Amino acid sequence: MVPGFKSSPSRRLRVVAAAVVSLLGAVSLCTLPHRVAPAYAASNASQTLLPISIDYPESGSIFPPGITPPTFLWRDAAGVSWTIDISFADGAQPVHVTTKGERMHIGEIDPQTVSDSNQPPKLNAQQAATWTWTPDAKVWSEIQARSVTGPATFTITGYRDGQAAWSQSRVTFTTSKDEVGAPIFYRDVPLMPSAGVNGVVSPLATSSIPLIHWRLRDIRKPESHTVLKDMPTCANCHSFSADGKTFGMDIDGPANDKGLYAVVPVQKHMKVASKDMLHWNTEGSVGKVRVGFMSQVSPNSRYVLSTFAGPTVKSMMDSYFVTNFLDYRFLQVFYPTRGILEYYDRNDGLRHALPGADDPKYVQTDGVWSHDGKWIVFARAEARDPRPKGQPAALHALDGNETQIQYELYRIPFNDGKGGTPERIVGASRNGMSNNFPKISPDGKWIVFVQCKNGQLMRPDSQLYILPFRGGAARRLRANTRLMNSWHSFSPNGRWLVFSSKARSPYTQMYLTHIDADGNDSPAILIDNATAANRAVNIPEFANIPADGIDDINVDVADEATRIANSKAESTPKTTGSGKR
Amino acid sequence: MSAVASEQDCAPPDEFKTKLHGKPNVDALNDLGVWFASHEKYACAADAFGSSLQTDAAQPGLPHVVFEFGASLYLSGNTKEAVPSLQEAERLGYRDEKLHMILAAALDSTQAVTEAEAEWRKALDFDPENNAALEALSSDLLTQGDNQATIELLDTPRLAAQRSAQQTINLGTAYAKAGKLDEARRVLADGLNTNPDSYEVAQQLAGVLTQLDRKDQAAMVMQLAESRKRQNAAQAGK
């Protein structure tokens, strides 16, 4: 086998570099005025001093009140020590700090999730050159208190010899009056793709499934609280009702068939038992298409809305494009190409197609409720074969051989389950991009959705957009980071959005952005220390509960999986048809 | 045996002698090729893979074997013969980042810049953050005078966090040549903060600052660069 290929700098590179110098004029100390150490002068510093690159926070950032102290990040070729001055619009005494800076470092590693199929997190070129400063809790508290009514200005000045300033930059930030007001529930996963003996790649070996954790984070606390781990089977998307009283979660049944859904009341000590399980199978037999996707509990907890293949589809492989890769950074591509929206009514135990979102000519997915329960917004595209014959396998995320699908957002009234005529949402459709994963703000004014070139979920190019609920011009969020922005969720008061991103590391982290009454957002604020440096945060969701509202979740459904596997079952939700089939 | 291979000791190791006795099958020859490649005897590897292809030109996994043959030729220095083999592997449907990287480098060295550019882009489809491909492709684009394509390639939010010194120089050059000196200054100043030991980045930044009539800053940049150069030299001498 040919060993890892690494191209060496070609002669052309050197030729180009030489040409550049020639183009710009050779520069040396001889041809330039000798530098006299400039006196520090803020007014013309940008002309005199060299610029420092401040990477975090970005200017214009808005921090939530009470968040733990952030780590300021900068790069500076000139300075070896720095002064930090934080001044306030109210004229209060500035904070003044002298620091030699600390290098950015990789956080704590979870030895259990180190694998041959992933790589330890490492600093990229920028991060390797980054210096850091973290204010202590008392100083940060003072900074927060003084930056509510007007912005704080963070000025950093670099020194080489202790006297003369060489470099300088500044950013401004504020602290919001708006509390986050709720904890964030999220899944904390290893990135350990696994190739089985037959060469088939799975996102996680069955034996590693117990390494998945579910955690709750109060952003005012320095660490997250683990509420669930050591599950014997895989669990996926979760959903809280808007009032925070009900919790739902996809739980894989036997043979990873994704056929179970748990719905339980939210309590300090939660228990998910067999009696809490809904069985998505339409015929009561294991092995049929029983995949619920992106299930969402309704605001009043009565319904669960989900995507199903519908009665015309024979197998899961006929309705989903799924490819797993051994590249741990983007290890899976997964999206439906056929499907209808159905809702499960907990009152009658029946599953119903939702008219207006049940046309088999289309794939209808990602259905979400407005907070008054009156509207459903969903993603739609023409249905298609997930794997057309002769199509080569996709070898990596965004491979041109992925089945192409560009979703558009639509809206229908729920209308007590009678649905309605789907209305295309202008601004999230007919733009040549895939518009997906909508979330409606609690006040019903906005939709924030993901836009990417193809498909949905874990897309490297995914960007968050906001537009009015009725449609209009979509605006790209300022909070978007350089790599993958998705899995967003509104805080119960609608003023904060949590989302996940791979901006700093392939091991996904979560961020916050403030959304004002006009839908304007602010640069991304990292939620520090959400997991180990070699684990990924995904599916963060605000839960409308007290910060310590859940202590633990005990899942005891192993007997249920066995029972289903051995049974052609009774007690399964029947499906009632309506609308087009 | 090729001329280059004849200069290497292509005697198979003992573990292969039985398998290669008489008329060896393609599996044995391919295994031998892999063994030679893993011991960096690329000319010998090319001979082994070549023999395998002569033995059975319709063998299972043919595209991979053709790629190994082409890659071994390239790594043994036989660029001219490597190119058609690597192109054949691609035509046969072999899909791998390394194929595009090696083929692009081979095409570059034969001055087939346009074809090389296409191969670098295919490699970047696999990994948009592939530094070697980004450096080589941006250099190709600059050589062709395509400043705008260089800017579009390198000045993206995704790459900003990890631009190498060479990429910074290429991007700064593209902006400077396009007459966008403020953009060149922005990129180079940020690049110097990421690569503080790069004398070349400092030199280019100082040039841009001079053109912008910021001679004080240009002097500071060069004073800093000289100081770092001295420090690094002193440390290297320790």
Structure characteristics:
heterodimer; A: 581 residues; mainly beta; Immunoglobulin-like; Neuraminidase; 2 domains; five-stranded mixed β-sheet; 7% helix; globular; disordered N terminus; disordered C terminus; B: 238 residues; Serine Threonine Protein Phosphatase 5, Tetratricopeptide repeat; 15 helices; 75% helix; 0% strand
Task: Set down the secondary structure blueprint.
The complex is a heterodimer of chains A (581) and B (238).
Chain A: H1 11-24, H2 45-48, E1 50-51, E2 53-56, E3 61-63, E4 72-75, E5 81-88, E6 95-99, E7 102-103, H3 125-128, E8 130-133, H4 137-146, E9 152-159, E10 165-175, E11 184-190, E12 194-195, E13 201-202, E14 213-217, E15 225-228, E16 235-240, E17 246-251, E18 260-265, E19 269-273, E20 277-279, E21 293-297, E22 303-308, E23 320-324, E24 332-336, E25 340-345, E26 350-353, E27 362-369, E28 375-382, E29 408-413, E30 423-424, E31 434-440, E32 446-452, E33 463-468, E34 475-476, E35 485-490, E36 496-501, E37 509-514, E38 525-526, E39 535-542, E40 552-556, H5 558-565, E41 574-576
Parallel strand pairs in A: 1-10, 3-10, 19-40, 26-41
Antiparallel strand pairs in A: 2-4, 4-8, 5-6, 5-9, 7-8, 9-10, 11-14, 11-39, 12-13, 14-15, 16-17, 17-18, 18-20, 21-22, 22-25, 23-24, 25-26, 27-28, 28-29, 29-30, 31-32, 32-33, 33-34, 35-36, 36-37, 37-38
Chain B: H1 3-7, H2 14-17, H3 26-38, H4 42-55, H5 62-75, H6 79-91, H7 97-109, H8 113-126, H9 131-143, H10 147-154, H11 157-160, H12 165-177, H13 181-194, H14 199-211, H15 215-237
Helix pairs in contact in B: 3-4, 3-5, 4-5, 5-6, 6-7, 7-8, 8-9, 9-10, 9-12, 10-12, 12-13, 12-14, 13-14, 14-15
In short:
The complex is a heterodimer of chains A (581) and B (238). Chain A is mainly β and 581 residues long. Helices cover 7% and strands 36% of the residues of chain A.
